[in-house]
Automatic annotation (TrEMBL):
The gene is nnrE. Homotetramer. (6S)-NADPHX binds at residues 58-62, 129-135, 159, 266, 329, 380, 445. This is Bifunctional NAD(P)H-hydrate repair enzyme. One of its GO terms (molecular function) is NAD(P)HX epimerase activity.
Length: 509
């Protein structure tokens, strides 16, 4: 699904009004009807009284229309109409319609005391939406901070939390939502890791709009930001169907170069994930101290053994492997750096580079030029910083990520709560699966194994990355559902990859 900028969203609304021959007020009613439908599925009238704070722009107009619809649906509704600046025409129309109904309606001007919401209230923020042009300050900023500090209430943002720009970093007070109902299309700001505390649980509210293709040209040239959100329906189409005559040779032979003394667990987890993702064969190159560990822990894997007892110092013939995954638990010793250089020099096909392999490249930047085109790099934010330098915020980091992927013809994953996948074509995908329970040792190694297993099967690198990241997160979600987030281990994620495949098959069929 396309991720749109604020400018593109406004253009899409205008295009819908023009093409369908409707008024903008009718389009607002359509959006609000979809929102209240989603809201009512999550919150019943018995959930608590509703307090809707409405601004003077179109987001406030959404709020007034929401109040009208919820009141008619039997909710105990109270509207607070903030007064700053001139009301938009659609806001004024819904303001007038809401005032005619029989529920509490309070006007609020800067400087007026705002009553503290009572415990149990569901506070719906329709103050600003995407209409923010500068940081909030003064009375309205203090008001939002007061809401954020109020305990025993549920905070809901209508479209985006007030104070959060749609296309850039937050620099002032921001409404801290427990739930954000995003209207129409996702906005890039909701995926920034630093904004997670403001967005809370995100729900996408779909309603009929014109084709998004009509507005993709809107905006500055060279705008580099996440522009595609991965959805289950799209990812399900990426999975290859298996033929009756396929066999382990069909599904590829992967080499995994991983592990060092004291870090063999990373190699075991990654190796299991290679085969769980569907590869036919995996050979693990490990130091001598890891041979018995690998053979006993994962008998399905074959092994080649390094000359060194503690670390990898050299890998033999590479010609038989469909791909290579390198880095989990590898260590950063000089002899291992030399071995990495040797692998990158002799292997020309796309491979997966993770963890200590990325750290070795950051220490010796000349290694970067040796990375085969199409390879998949999987840094977390600190590894990304070591490779590409510091950035001010996620928006700047996304730009660097996209530029680096395009310039070097690589696929670069940036592992965060919403992992982004930058491809050489300039697209940046955002993942929507995964959960905080996956923030535990070894889950990154599992992802490396899944990506390696997909490349071994012949998936194109960008496809392997998008499918692999989504599959990894979905397996984590299914594992957390079965076991709880607190209980989750990386092994649980690997063991639920099959269930994740089944879920995608169900959607596809």
């Amino acid at each position: 699904m396309q991720i749109l900028s604020g400018q593109q969203l406004r253009a899409l609304d205008e295009m819908t009004v023009h093409e369908e021959g409707i008024t903008s007020l009718e389009l607002m009613e359509r959006a609000v009807t979809a929102f209240t439908g989603s809201f009512c599925k999550q919150f019943r009238p018995s959930s608590g009284p509703i307090l809707i704070v409405c601004g003077t722009g179109n987001n406030g107009g959404d709020g007034f229309a929401t109040a009208r619809q919820l009141h008619r649906a039997g909710y105990n509704t109270h509207v607070v109409a903030a007064e700053f600046g001139k009301r938009s025409p659609d806001n004024q129309a819904n303001f007038n319609a809401a005032k005619r109904l029989d529920f509490p309606f309070t006007l609020l001007r800067a400087g007026n005391p705002f009553p503290k919401p009572a415990p149990g209230v569901i506070l719906i923020d329709a103050l600003l939406g995407t209409g923010l042009s500068r940081p909030l300050e003064g009375y309205w900023a203090e008001l939002i901070e007061r809401w954020n500090e109020t305990e025993d209430i549920t905070r809901v943002a209508l479209d985006v939390p007030s104070g959060l720009p749609a296309d850039g970093p937050a620099t002032g007070a921001v409404f801290m939502a427990d739930h954000t109902f995003v209207l129409g299309y996702p906005k890039v700001a909701i995926f920034a890791p630093e904004n997670a505390v403001y967005v809370g649980e995100m729900s996408l509210v779909k309603f009929k709009l014109s084709s998004v293709r009509t507005v993709l040209h809107v905006g500055p040239e060279g705008d580099i930001r996440p522009n595609q959100m991965l959805t289950e329906g799209y990812v399900a189409t990426l999975v290859k169907k298996r033929g009756n005559s396929d066999h382990k040779g069909t599904f590829g032979h992967a080499l995994l170069v991983a592990g060092s003394f004291g870090k063999m667990g990373a190699a075991v987890i990654a190796a299991r994930a290679v085969l769980r993702a569907g590869a036919g064969l995996v050979t693990c190159h490990v130091p001598r101290s890891g041979y018995e560990i690998m053979q006993i822990s994962f008998p399905e894997a074959m092994c080649t053994v390094d000359a060194h007892w503690y670390q990898t110092t050299g890998v033999g013939d590479l010609s038989q492997y469909a791909t290579i995954g390198i880095g989990p638990g590898l260590g950063t010793e000089q002899l291992t750096a030399a071995a990495l250089r040797d692998v990158l020099t002799r292997y020309a096909k796309p491979l997966v580079i993770d963890a200590d392999a990325l750290n070795l490249i950051a220490q010796s930047p000349s290694l970067f030029a040796l990375i085969p085109k199409g390879s998949i790099l999987t840094p977390h934010p600190k590894e990304f910083e070591r490779l590409f330098g510091k950035t001010a915020d996620s928006f700047a980091r996304w730009r660097v990520q996209g530029e680096a992927a395009k310039r070097n013809e690589l696929v670069i994953l940036l592992k965060t709560n919403h992992t982004t996948i930058a491809t050489p074509t300039g697209k940046i995908y955002v993942n929507t699966t995964g959960n905080p329970g996956m923030g535990t040792a070894g889950t990154g190694d599992a992802l490396t194994g899944i990506l390696t297993g997909l490349l071994a099967q012949g998936y194109e690198p960008a496809t392997a990355a998008t499918l692999g990241v989504y599959l990894h997160g979905l397996a984590g979600d299914l594992a957390a559902e079965a076991l709880s987030q607190e209980f989750l281990l990386a092994e649980d994620v690997v063991n639920h990859v099959g269930a994740a495949y089944q879920e995608l098959a169900r959607v596809r069929n």
